[in-house]
Amino acid sequence: MQIQFLGGVDTVTGSQHLLTAGGRRVLRDCGMYQGRREDARRINSQLPFEAAAVDAVVLSHAHIDHCGNLPTLARSGYAGPLHATTATVALTGVMLRDAARIQEQDASYLNQKTNRRGQPPVAPLYTLADAEQAIQLLRGCRYGETVESAPGIRVLFQDAGHILGAAVNVFELAENGRRARVGFALDLGRKNLPLIRDPEIMAGLDLLVLESTYGDRLHDDAVRAEDQLAAAVTKTLARGGKVIIPSFALERAQELLYHLTALIAAGRLPKIPVYVDSPMAVAVTRIFQKSSEYFDDATLAVFRRLGNILQADWIHFIESVEDSKKITAGREPCIVIAASGMCEHGRILHHLKHGISNGANTILIVGFQAQHTLGRRLVEGERSVRIFGDWFERRAEVLVLNAFSAHADRNELLDYVRQAAPRRIALVHGEAGQRAALAAALQRQQSAPVHVPANGETMAL
């Protein structure tokens, strides 16, 4: 019995972990690596294992860094089941179709430039047909359900408290009379997030595979998110600018709408136009509206009092390219929420291209920005950035709102480990400095050995 760490190990994207017992192989997540364009294409196009030899896949949630390379897996010969919660199944279909379209559209856009320069054409990583092939393999289950993913490998789904339908998983492996329990807590959520319930604690673990995204950082309290958002919007409106928010279309966009509705209902913000410029975010919001069984009690109470809080009359869901272009060309103060959350793909790039040089505007960062992404360069204060191959001077203000993070911070991770009390810990899903810092903090806290695996490393269970 063993686990191999194949992706999302010394970075926060491209999550892939392969479990083996009794000759059976189960992959936990098949995420897309996000970073430098050349690195992303190389890593995502070449799977580090034989796809057809995998017996089953367990999908934690529908974020692209965890599900985004499933079409490559299917195209490479995998034809087994993809187990996930029912909400994740619904959301993954939307995410993969949109990711395929974005890649096809971006390739087409870039090819306009390469053709003029006499360079070879750019091909998308995968197509919509590849995405559909993967979507057909999805199989839904509920929190609290245990699935036999392969003979000798059973998996329990529990609430991760991260996004709608996200799961922490306990794998029960058996081989020749021996047993091992491996828990995965990546991505692990926080208490008091809007819409969803708090994370569940896994128990009886021989090994806990734990994220370290914020291994040496503390977030602002999640309950302060509305205050931070109100201050940023008020400041921008006072100078007549737009609030441009790169947002993950899944969960973060819906959280923003939740908070904006509450602020406007309380009279803390005026009813200004809010544009959700992402076909994927529109589709995801519709799934949220049908998924009340996943909501926490506080959200259900708000829904009963205010009705449909995700679709007020001042919220405009934009689907067509023509309407999106009108927003980029418009000068009226407004809020624009557009994907992708790390500013690597999608319509947010067009909004940044047209708005980044306007000093009246604010670029509001409400999620983690991986290394080598445009979002990370904005957070780090670069004054000149490249978008679609052209350079732009950044005059817009960049604000980072840490209260919006859906990942546990250092203290929340330490608290989770205290409660789960695993026999061993493997730290993944974090940049090198964050992993090292969390490893040191864990070793000071308790006696369970902490391992920091290398990418590709295999650990015996």
Can you give me a brief rundown of this structure?
By secondary structure, this protein is an alpha/beta fold.
The amount of helix comes to: 25-40%
Which word captures the global form? globular
Given as residue ranges, the uncertain stretches (5+ residues, pLDDT < 50) are none
Q: Multimeric state of these chains?
A: single chain
Number of domains: 2
CATH architecture classification of the largest domain: 4-Layer Sandwich
Mean pLDDT: 93
Would you kindly provide a written description of the structure presented here, covering whatever features stand out?
With 461 residues, this protein is an alpha/beta fold. The protein folds into two domains: 271 residues, Ribonuclease Z/Hydroxyacylglutathione hydrolase-like (Metallo-beta-lactamase, Chain A); 183 residues, Rossmann fold (3-Layer(aba) Sandwich), CATH 3.40.50. Helix content is 34%, strand content 22%. A hairpin with a 7-residue loop joins strand 8 and strand 9. The model has no long low-confidence stretch (mean pLDDT 93).
